């Protein structure tokens, strides 16, 4: 097994080698006209894995977040990646299956189906679908392909013999996600969320039957699945449960609880040789459950807190596909190894970043399983590994705090430290940090979070770095999520979104601006600054006013003395991050950067042509502490943008 620290060093070295560039002295920014761009190279270089499949003695591994995404062929006999097959559309490969020697690949955002002929080495696009994701795929014994779609949650059958797709509809009306799928000679099995169901669909008649035990009816997802001749097994969220159902008699079932402290998810499942192998998250633990004897075993933690996208069997060994690499468990010996796909030649490339932040000396760019750290003085880039996705960051003195998805976790990092430190996980059915703010008066850090899919009410974490104490308030604004936050003189000002957990239709019509007292811990007031606005994507303040940017690109000014919205300004057509330096604000959309002069309340575009490829389609922007530069991305490259605020 590669020691974890050694593995991280290898990955960091690969990333640094790919992106080291000569630096531009920071003082030069002050002499450049506002809007001048300096290209700092690929923002975040990674090789995250989304799925995998064996064909013969070759493990085919699909990437996610790269451009283009690739399927890398790892020949186990040669112990190296011998070929990469490019998948030109979509932001990632989350679904793979095989029929004979043909490999089928499904993409998400957009949803396209590809075939890789592993004999001839050719890649062919077969079909495209209007759905947001092809989330999951499986093949039947007679060679049909079944795809679980998300948004809406439907099942599609593809027949390779005819090239015809057949819509099997929604297994459960109104549910948005089919997160797992399996097929045998008679049935298709679909795992549903955001309200959990395990649906068996008769392939001939279309008749549907829910196999999920009644005692699991209030769970969120059946998010992973495997089947054998006799059983179907599914990972159930969000209490880290495995359900094993006998196909011939669904009343004969077992529910198994993953045992690692804090375990929430069962993220991959495989039935093999009478055992059900499954992986938990956030711990990263590998388990197995013996169906006949009702025995659960903990096999170990291949890579701490890593998510497992797929578990496979090959020649008696168990393989797990994870973002950072592949684990291999040998049931005959009990040995658990961890293998680096990058060391074996898997392609690393610029991924779609998720966040950007400057502490003045370094720029952190968040991506999958960590962040690239760009040293501004030298151009050197290193990789900071984190088990999750950094969505938002701030620096307080010499410490940078990172809000990390999926556990709504807060980490801290100091330059020079090889690893980030986990401070807390939010709990309370939260998974996605939305923003971070620091209040100088109380010296507290505020982190709003979004609830897990299907759950109501976002939360607000208040963290004291001196004591390590964290308090979570949920709900904070009833039936909404706090999307942005700023703090001034002991008050946190909250910009909300009407979206609660993903997959849940909003139940409130308009986003709000609210004030939360960090000393009394009470919500002081809330207003609807503009009607019909779904989200306030950024909030910042001056000494006398709070400014909010809406998802429609409208900026509003809330006067703290008059206690009302005094001015509004149409800046662009979509919201993004908002930053303020003095009496000048800046924001961006995917193509441009805008300067807003707050005294006359006017806006103008100072940068165009960015074509920013942020993961998830958002728009991120951060300001250097010197207030001489902004940091964003052009395409997938990190750029510094000279500014001259006043």
Automatic annotation (TrEMBL):
<keyword id="KW-0732">Signal</keyword>
<feature type="signal peptide">
    <location>
        <begin position="1"/>
        <end position="28"/>
    </location>
</feature>
<dbReference type="InterPro" id="IPR011047">
    <property type="entry name" value="Quinoprotein_ADH-like_sf"/>
</dbReference>
<protein>
    <recommendedName>
        <fullName>Outer membrane protein assembly factor BamB</fullName>
    </recommendedName>
</protein>
<dbReference type="InterPro" id="IPR051200">
    <property type="entry name" value="Host-pathogen_enzymatic-act"/>
</dbReference>
<dbReference type="InterPro" id="IPR006311">
    <property type="entry name" value="TAT_signal"/>
</dbReference>
<dbReference type="InterPro" id="IPR015943">
    <property type="entry name" value="WD40/YVTN_repeat-like_dom_sf"/>
</dbReference>
């Amino acid at each position: 097994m590669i020691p974890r620290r050694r593995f991280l060093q290898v990955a960091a070295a690969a990333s640094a080698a790919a992106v080291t560039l000569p630096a531009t002295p920071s003082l030069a920014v002050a002499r450049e006209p506002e809007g001048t761009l300096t290209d700092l190279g690929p923002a975040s270089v990674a090789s995250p894995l989304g799925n995998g499949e064996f064909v013969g003695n070759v493990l085919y591994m699909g990437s996610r977040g790269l451009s283009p995404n690739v399927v890398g062929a790892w020949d186990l006999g040669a112990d190296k990646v011998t070929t990469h097959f490019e998948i030109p559309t979509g932001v990632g490969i989350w679904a793979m299956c095989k029929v004979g020697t043909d490999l089928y690949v499904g993409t998400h955002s957009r949803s396209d189906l590809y075939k890789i002929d592993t004999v001839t080495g050719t890649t062919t696009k077969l079909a495209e679908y209007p759905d947001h994701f092809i989330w999951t795929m499986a093949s039947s014994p007679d060679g049909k392909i079944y795809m679980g779609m998300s948004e809406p949650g439907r099942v599609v059958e593809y027949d390779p013999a005819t090239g015809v797709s057949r819509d099997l509809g929604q297994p459960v009306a109104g549910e948005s996600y089919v997160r797992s799928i399996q097929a045998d000679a008679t049935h298709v099995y679909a795992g549903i969320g955001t309200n959990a169901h395990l649906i068996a669909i008769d392939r001939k008649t279309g008749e549907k039957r829910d196999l999920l035990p009644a005692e699991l009816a209030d769970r969120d997802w059946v998010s992973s699945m495997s089947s054998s001749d006799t059983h179907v097994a599914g990972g159930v969220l969000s209490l880290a449960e495995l359900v094993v159902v006998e196909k011939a008699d669904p009343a004969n079932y077992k529910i198994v609880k993953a045992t690692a402290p804090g375990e929430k998810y069962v993220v991959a499942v495989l039935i093999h040789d009478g055992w059900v192998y499954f992986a938990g998250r956030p711990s990263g633990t590998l388990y197995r459950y013996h169906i006949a004897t009702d025995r659960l075993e903990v096999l170990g933690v291949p890579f701490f807190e890593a998510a497992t996208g797929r578990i496979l069997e090959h020649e008696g060994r168990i393989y797990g596909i994870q973002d950072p690499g592949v684990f291999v468990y040998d049931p005959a010996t009990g040995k658990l190894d961890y293998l680096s796909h990058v060391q074996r030649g898997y392609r690393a490339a610029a991924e779609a970043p998720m966040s950007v932040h400057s502490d003045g000396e370094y720029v952190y760019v968040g991506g999958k399983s960590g962040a690239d750290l760009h040293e501004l003085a030298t151009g050197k880039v290193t990789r900071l590994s984190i088990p999750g996705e950094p969505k938002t960051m701030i620096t307080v003195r010499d410490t940078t705090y990172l809000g990390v998805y999926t556990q709504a976790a807060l980490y801290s990092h100091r330059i020079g430290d090889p690893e980030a430190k986990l401070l807390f996980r939010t709990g309370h059915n939260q998974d996605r940090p939305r923003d971070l703010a620091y209040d100088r008066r109380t010296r507290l850090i505020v982190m709003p979070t979004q609830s897990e899919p299907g759950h109501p009410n976002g939360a607000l974490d208040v963290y004291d770095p001196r004591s390590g104490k964290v308090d979570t308030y949920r709900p904070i604004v009833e039936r909404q999520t706090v999307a942005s936050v700023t703090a001034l003189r002991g008050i946190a000002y909250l910009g909300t979104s009407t979206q609660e957990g993903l997959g849940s239709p909003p139940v409130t019509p308009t986003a709000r601006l609210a004030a939360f007292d960090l000393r009394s811990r009470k919500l002081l007031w809330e207003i609807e600054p503009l009607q019909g606005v779904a989200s306030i994507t950024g909030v910042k303040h001056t000494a006398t006013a709070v400014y909010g940017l809406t998802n429609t690109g409208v900026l509003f000014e809330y006067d703290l003395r008059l206690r009302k919205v005094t001015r509004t300004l149409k800046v662009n057509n979509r919201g993004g991050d908002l930053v303020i330096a003095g009496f000048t604000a800046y924001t961006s959309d995917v193509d441009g950067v805008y300067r807003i002069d707050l005294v006359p309340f006017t806006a103008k575009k100072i940068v165009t042509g960015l074509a920013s490829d942020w993961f998830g389609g958002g728009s991120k922007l951060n300001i250097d502490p010197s207030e001489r530069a902004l940091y964003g991305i052009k395409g997938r490259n990190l750029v510094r943008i000279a500014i001259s605020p006043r």
